[in-house]
Amino acid sequence: MKDIYFITSNKNKAQEASVFLGFQLRQKNIDLPEIQDLDVLAVSKHKALMAFEIVGKPLFVEDTGLYIEELNGFPGAFAKMAVQTLGVEKIAGLVSGPSSAYAKTVITYHDGKVIRQFIGEKRGVIQKNPRGKNNFGWDPIFQPEGEIKTYAEMTKKQKVAVSHRTKAFAKFKKFFT
């Protein structure tokens, strides 16, 4: 086990990250207040700074946003809250038709001296009608560029092959290992 903490309340996310990085992570669940900002870069950096004050050891946080161009980037870093409050059907109903969007994951590493951010993005479109059974967040309405399926219609392996999160973790792995 390497001496780095992944600050997340999601044990499945921590497990996935360990598999991707190739070593066991220390997962720590800290309830951190989030700044109100559409930009996941700002939200992620703020969380990493706050978490380091508590943990005092090398750590990283991960944040993801969904940016719908027709909605001027909304919901951005508020994607999770938008899905919980409105649901994917209502979010999809806010656009006039298939609408350009991108998903962005930011991993922010902080060791007390260095703060580094690793970004993964995937362009795609928001579909008016949710599709797919793998119902995680906004996956039923996001269809990645070059694909015929939404994230929710893909197998886990298919999604990982094209995902914004995978791109961010690949950059982080290169830096950290």
Blueprint of the fold:
Layout: E1 5-7, H1 11-21, E2 26-28, H2 40-55, E3 59-68, E4 75-76, H3 79-86, H4 88-93, E5 99-110, E6 115-126, E7 142-144, H5 156-162, H6 164-176
End-to-end Cα distance, whole Å, is 13 Å
Task: Give the overall shape.
Answer: globular
The succession of helices and strands, N to C, reads: EHEHEEHHEEEHH
CATH level 1 class label: Alpha Beta
Secondary-structure-based class equals: alpha/beta
Structural summary, described in words:
It is a single chain. The protein has 177 residues and is of the alpha/beta class. The chain has a single domain (5-176), classed as Maf protein, CATH 3.90.950.10. Helices cover 34% and strands 25% of the residues. It is built from six helices and seven strands. It has helices spanning 11-21, 40-55, 79-86, 88-93, 156-162, 164-176; strands at residues 5-7, 26-28, 59-68, 75-76, 99-110, 115-126, 142-144. Strands 1, 2, 3, 4, 5, 6 and 7 form a seven-stranded mixed β-sheet that branches. Strand 1, helix 1 and strand 2 (26-28) form a beta-alpha-beta unit. The protein starts with a strand and ends with a helix. The mean pLDDT is 92.
Nutshell version of this structure?
The chain is α/β, with parallel strands linked by helices and 177 residues long.
What distinguishing features does this structure have?
177 residues, alpha/beta, 7-stranded mixed sheet, 6 helices, 34% helix, globular
